[in-house]
Amino acid sequence: MNKVRGLSTGVRAVIALPFVWLTVFFLLPFVLVLVLAFATNSPDNAPPVELGLSFANFKLLFSDHLYVVAWLSSLRIAAVSTFVALLLGYPMAYAISRADPRRRPLLLMLVVLPFWTSFLIRVYAWMGLLAENGILNQFLRWVGFGEHSGTILGTEWAVHLGIVYAYLPFMVLPLYATLEKLDWSLLEAAADLGAKPIQAFLTVTLPLSLPGIVAGCLMVFIPAVGEFVIPDLLGGTSTLMIGKVLWDEFFTNADWPLASAVAICLLVLLVGPIAIFQRQQAKSLERRT
Amino acid sequence: MIGRARFAFGVLAFGYAFLYLPILLVIVYSFNESRLVTVWAGFSFKWWHALFHNDDMLSAAWLSLRIGLASATLSTILGLAAGYVLARVPKFIGRTLFGCLVMAPMVMPEVVMGISMLLLFVGGEQYLGGPDRGFISITIAHTTFSLAFVAIVVQARLADFDRSLEEAAMDLGATPWTTFRTITLPMLTPALISGWLLAFTLSLDDLIMTQFVAGAQSQTLPMLVYSSVRLGVDPQINVLATIVVCIAATALIISGRLTRQTA
């Protein structure tokens, strides 16, 4: 049917329904952000903006120390957290992929379950753990050290911890998907040829699981860069992240044009990682069909 | 070999402890007598009682539930259409754009989607006189965001599924609509149910977009939780967390059963 030129009315309607929805509620709003990013703030008007073509917002973003630092520290925090999540997630995915096949669904489900519970509540859980009189500090004191230890809550450490905790399932799942399909006889062959386990891992397993590593890292890195809730609740005033800056510009300072410009900058930052991610998703879908 | 098994066990024990200990502690402290979430002062249902008599909490939960039901249903319908097109209609004008539009909300930072949606609704209010910011605007925002997830689930299911059944039906004279209704739709049902559940969960959980597009009058559950959590730990939130974990576990078990049955 599809080979015939010109699609039937039914198929056209099926295409049009999501197409129109997404154009109106996703593409159009995005254009509005772009327009507003070049506008100027004028607090007297009802919607506090004056449209126009001004680069003042962007100039401010690149000259003001605060924004540049927020940009860079978002990237750094996201990168470090992604790496830690990889270090923790890879062995987990590996262990699950080598577990008894009957047990794998349960083990995987246990990884996914936290994702289905509230994100906010999972971050909240760490507030009670890391607070000054929190359970972690009580434990450290009980063990004997930590008398002079400070509080983790309100530092960048807490933000890293929160990101790793919240996004670990996103790391484990794609890693598991590639490791599960790995041909283990290759490892046996490597061992037969005299490779030590660590050598076999570095030369066989690791390169073959690279697609999973890339997918997992991007699935953690992309949302982590624009993260707001975690730096807001776990980080302190010194933790600057671009998502939080956008939020503050919008809700606290009511500077919509500047917030829009921050949004555009955040997207520019993510264009590269998103493009890689999209291409990889397309490739893996092609492989399935 | 024993070394390897022990290593695997150690890794998994550590990983799951990391994932579950914080949640477990939140649950335990929902039964705490004391107001402090850090000091155990004995077992009590005090905070459970308080939560179920907290009118703000109940009305926020009711609003979240209504938005969740509406947006999950809408995004399942739209996601079904989008996923079907991506998997079964290889060529039409604007297909690349279509694919990008469907997938983009998944990778778009939520703060960016939030601000852009709000600008749309503010513009709509100004030039078209509506819709009011509240139930409708939040539902639209959630639908736009979660239809991508439904589309992916549907597309993956269709990609795995053998097309020959659909082709056979059409060769035997079934119209495309009949084919869809009798072959494609039944086979997609498990995917649609898990897609619906996923969209529902995403909606119930969303804070950032909601905060942007909600008007002054409406407050969803995550908004209420956020504003109370900002001030510090609150045992009623622990109770709420316990309920959410129980619901999530049930939903996951259901959707797990459904996908395994058909896998």
How would you characterize this protein structure?
The complex is a heterodimer of chains A (289) and B (263). With 289 residues, chain A is mainly α. Chain A has a single domain (65-288), classed as MetI-like fold (Orthogonal Bundle). Chain A contains 13 helices and 2 strands. Chain A has helices at residues 9-37, 56-63, 65-97, 104-116, 119-130, 135-143, 156-181, 185-192, 197-208, 210-225, 229-233, 242-252, 256-288; strands at 40-41, 49-50. In chain A, strand 1 and strand 2 (49-50) form a beta hairpin. In chain A, helix 3 (65-97) runs parallel beside helix 7 (156-181) and helix 10 packs antiparallel against helix 13 (256-288). The longest helix of chain A is centred in the first third of the chain and has 33 residues, at 65-97. The radius of gyration of chain A is 24 Å and the shape is globular. The two termini of chain A are 19 Å apart. The model of chain A has no long low-confidence stretch (mean pLDDT 83). Chain B is mostly helical and 263 residues long. Chain B has one domain (55-262): MetI-like fold (Orthogonal Bundle), CATH 1.10.3720. Chain B has 11 helices and no strands. In chain B, helix 3 packs antiparallel against helix 8, helix 3 crosses helix 10 (221-230) and helix 4 packs across helix 6. Chain B is globular and about 70 Å long. Chain B starts with a helix and ends with a helix. The model of chain B has no long low-confidence stretch (mean pLDDT 85). Classes of the chains: A mainly alpha (289), B mainly alpha (263). At the A-B interface, helix 1, helix 3, helix 4, helix 5 and helix 10 of A face helix 1, helix 3, helix 4, helix 5 and helix 6 of B.
What order do the helices and strands come in, and which of them pair?
The complex is a heterodimer of chains A (289) and B (263).
Chain A: H1 9-37, E1 40-41, E2 49-50, H2 56-63, H3 65-97, H4 104-116, H5 119-130, H6 135-143, H7 156-181, H8 185-192, H9 197-208, H10 210-225, H11 229-233, H12 242-252, H13 256-288
Helix pairs in contact in A: 1-13, 2-3, 3-7, 3-10, 4-7, 5-7, 7-10, 8-9, 10-13, 12-13
Chain B: H1 2-29, H2 46-52, H3 55-88, H4 95-107, H5 110-127, H6 135-160, H7 164-171, H8 176-205, H9 208-213, H10 221-230, H11 235-262
Helix pairs in contact in B: 1-11, 2-11, 3-6, 3-8, 3-10, 4-6, 6-8, 7-8, 8-11
